[in-house]
Amino acid sequence: MERIKQVFGEQRDDMWLWVETGERWQAQDLNATTAAKVDQYVTAVKAFAASNTVILALADELAAGTIEATLAMWDLELGVEALAGALARQANPFPDASPVRVRHPLTADDSDEASWPWLPGLVVGMVAPGQWDIVVIDDRLVEGLDAGGVPVYPVCRRTAEAIRLR
């Protein structure tokens, strides 16, 4: 737990750099395509920061508890916690920043969705009930480089049938 808290604590402490970079990019005079990509970056940084906070909180919670303390909890409390977690996963099975596999074409002219491969991605967020925006992270699909030389990957919108947790 201490190593997890150290690594994610360092990420949290450096998050200002990611945020500041996004703000500097947004302040520039950008074309619509580049501005959209910068907005995607800013959204991904916010999701990353949120997941980092959750991980640190869970690490603190786990570090503070023991097996004996957990086993001493009332069965009813454990049941309610399990049910609440299951309901949350059912409402949004792909939380922001979740690593996933997503069906996505390798070429723009591939219209046969059944033949699309499962590619690695990262959930940007739920945009409607049953629909998520996913950044497809595959070097074959890089759309260019941002101002800092970082690859820009496509973002697609998919339903649950076209997404799998990694």
Q: What can be said about this structure in brief?
A:
This protein has 166 residues and is α+β, with helices and mostly antiparallel strands. It has 4 helices and 7 strands.
Structure description:
With 166 residues, the protein is of the alpha+beta class. The chain is 49% helix and 20% strand.
The proportion of residues in beta strands is 15-25%
Sheet having the most strands: 5 strands, antiparallel
- Report the structural category: alpha+beta
Shape: globular
Strand order of the largest sheet: 6-3-2-1-7
Low-confidence stretches are none
- Count helical runs: 4
What's the β-strand tally? 7
Average pLDDT score: 84
Chart the SSEs and their pairings.
Layout: H1 2-27, H2 32-64, H3 67-72, H4 75-91, E1 99-103, E2 118-128, E3 131-136, E4 144-145, E5 151-152, E6 155-159, E7 163-165
Antiparallel strand pairs: 1-2, 1-7, 2-3, 3-6, 4-5
Helix pairs in contact: 1-2
What structural keywords apply?
five-stranded antiparallel β-sheet; 166 residues; 20% strand; alpha+beta; two-stranded antiparallel sheet; globular
